Biotinidase (Pongo abelii), 137 residues
Amino acid sequence: MSGARSKLALFLCGCYVVALGAHTGEESVAEHHEAEYYMAAVYEHPSILSLNPLALVSRQEALELMNQNLDIYEQQVMTAAQKGVQIIVFPEDGIHGFNFTRTSIYPFLDFMPSPQVVRWNPCLEPHRFSDTESLTL
């Protein structure tokens, strides 16, 4: 697994752990007050954006840009988990940015086959298709 892929896998595992409240061996606030509430956080930062969102970049450049933002998210998930957060919300364009054209957004997108044509679970078969790298960053 490449460094970028292992970082996203670690990030997603961190999110999963935070969502479960299993970030420490101690009893979490959510377990104690399970029926009453859970701890949530909303996070936003100035995203690292493409210098020119109208220009077409390579797939590798797009993945590197998204990975920089995911690195920040990973740090924030760990910080939030230490504070007892069980679920964290990030902005919808926080990983890849915004103001793209239909053409310039293309390197940031992953191929998703039609479920009517191909039976595929990306969690079970993440490497089945070659242009789905952001699923495994």
